[in-house]
Amino acid sequence: MTEEQRAVVESDDPVLKVNAVAGSGKTTTLLEFAGHHPESRILYLVYNRAVADEVRREAHAKSLGNLTATTIHGLAYRHADGRRFELENELNEWRILDHYVPAQDQGTDQAMVYAWLLKDLLNYYLNSEVTRLDTDLLACYEAATAPGDRIRSLLARRGDETVGLVREILSDMKNRQAPAVHDFYLKLFQFAKVRLPYDVILVDEAQDTSGVMLSIVRRQEHARRIFVGDSYQQIYAFRHAVNSLDRVEGKSLRLSQTFRFGNGLARHISQRVNEAYELLGEKPEFRMKGIDLDTRFGKRAYQDRYPLAVIARSNVSLFDAVLERLYDGAKSMHFEGGYSGYAFMNIRVASLLYLREGKRDKIKDPLIKKFHAFDEVKRFAEDTQNQGLKVMIDLVSRYGAKLYDFDRLIKARLADKKRAELIFTTTHKAKGQEYDFVEMVGDDFVTRSDLAKILNSDKDGVNPVKLKEEINVYYVAATRGKKSIRLAAF
Predict the structure, then answer these.
(1) Distances in Å between the alpha carbon of 398 and those of 228, 362, 395, 458?
(2) Can you say whether the dihedral through the CA atoms of 455, 459, 463, 468 is positive or negative?
(3) Which residue from 222, 225, 285 is spatially nearest to 17, judged by alpha carbons?
């Protein structure tokens, strides 16, 4: 172990915050901590089930019987008895529209916007530290999401009514009159104030925890709590995530050594990230050192080495990169997290195509059926800042019915990750991954010049949180390569 890792492993602080750079061996360090404290019952909270499974395998291999690894949802499901509810993965706007949007709005262009607001406000409440359902919830929501003018106007005019409808939806979930989302039993777990039977709680990915998760962990004052993450990898604020490393009081340590790539690339990325944060008026604090390895970047990056991971900021730019490789003769492709997760072609995209072509009788997606014209959907996506829908609209506007052919050609080349010549991914899906050879899609990431222009503009409402997240998105993508990376301009 490095001296930094040893300081974490041997720490006895009641609350410890560890800022760990990409590739710094967080999991290894936390498993070493568990081995160093065999007498302690340790809970290891991770971001998703796949990571929990991996931690369990490694803990078993090291005979760490004192460590339990789970997701926060897995923990809540057991303690709040999630099995008693009919569960669905996400709320659907059309169900909210049909059952909760007031009668006077039905049939108007405002109906879908109101349905979306109810969904987003409900998701925010379930994921936040907020417990009360009153106008304070609206103030917290606006501060966290910076909504557009139409949503802000709705909240100002009909705030009390909106909170009342959110309360009604939650009541129907609780009484099993409507399906509940998984975040619902997580919120119940927050209210239950359970004292967890552990001596130490390790929180992984602490820079992107939900407020409700932070509230639950904070309450476990009988246990030592260790928050491990990377403030510069905070890229899920749009999902109402918060940076626990900034929100809790405790001793701070660093893991500044990356074991993923060479020191030349580490210094280059450190300099660029600090320069970008300086533009935002923040003192340069990012430090990262690499290993003794010649990771090639810039003009020295390898050309045509495979398997090659292609990383984009947006789904649309990734699709363009896929088409470029497709017509260059790519033989096998893999999409990180699964091809279906990129929404290049699905029922909603097909329904948007039919709506654009005026073939309403062929539309199968319940949400798109609610609109009478393609322009209405575009306005709805703008009013609600619905990025997922915007991507689909952009694809349909650019490529039209050609999307069917592209989808067929891509599916014919899909392969397992280990056998694929090309691995395509967005930055968000690449988080936690590493690849030998990487290419970042050019002109798809915010540059320091872009940041300077935004900050020097006369536009109102410049959001520093969103600008930080754009810097962090670049950092996450730039730290995925081990042997070679073709960096995007920054």
Answers:
(1) 42, 21, 5, 31
(2) negative
(3) 225
Give residue 92's pLDDT band: very low, low, confident or very high (50, 70, 90): confident
Q: Is 296 helix (H, G, I), strand (E, B) or coil?
A: strand
What is the gyration radius of the CA atoms in the chain, in angstroms? Answer: 24
Locate 183 and state its tokens. 């975040």
- Span 18-46, pLDDT tens digits: 999 999 999 999 999 999 999 999 999 99
**Dist CA 91 CA 79 (whole Å):** 23
pLDDT of residue 382: 92
Element (H, E) at 67: strand 67-71
pTM listed for this prediction: 0.92
Pairing of strands 241-242, 209-210: antiparallel
Burial of 259-294, coded b for 16+ CB within 10 Å and e otherwise, reads ebbbbbbbebbbebbbebbebeeeeeebebebeebe
What is the length of the chain? 490
pLDDT-derived band at 392, boundaries 50, 70, 90 = very high
What per-residue string of b and e applies to 138-169 under the rule 16 or more CB within 10 Å gives b?
bebbbebbebeebbeebbeebbeebbebbeeb
How many C-beta atoms surround the C-beta of residue 368 within 10 A?
Answer: 24
Element at 68 (helix H, strand E): strand 67-71
Phi, psi of 126 (to 5 degrees): -65, -30
Query: CA nearest 335: which of 413, 394, 235?
Result: 413
Chain mean pLDDT for the chain: 94
Residue 375, both tokens: 């322009």
Nearest to 144 by CA among 407, 385, 390: 385
How far apart CA 5 and CA 18 sit, in angstroms, is 10
DSSP character string of 298-354: GGGS-SS-SSEEEEESSHHHHHHHHHHHHTTT---EEETT-GGGG-SSSHHHHHHHH
Q: Which of 24-28, 216-220, 411-415, 462-466 has the lowest mean pLDDT?
A: 462-466
Residue 311 to residue 467: CA distance in whole angstroms = 20
Burial of 77-86, coded b for 16+ CB within 10 Å and e otherwise, reads beebebeebe
466 with 244: CB under 8 angstroms?
no
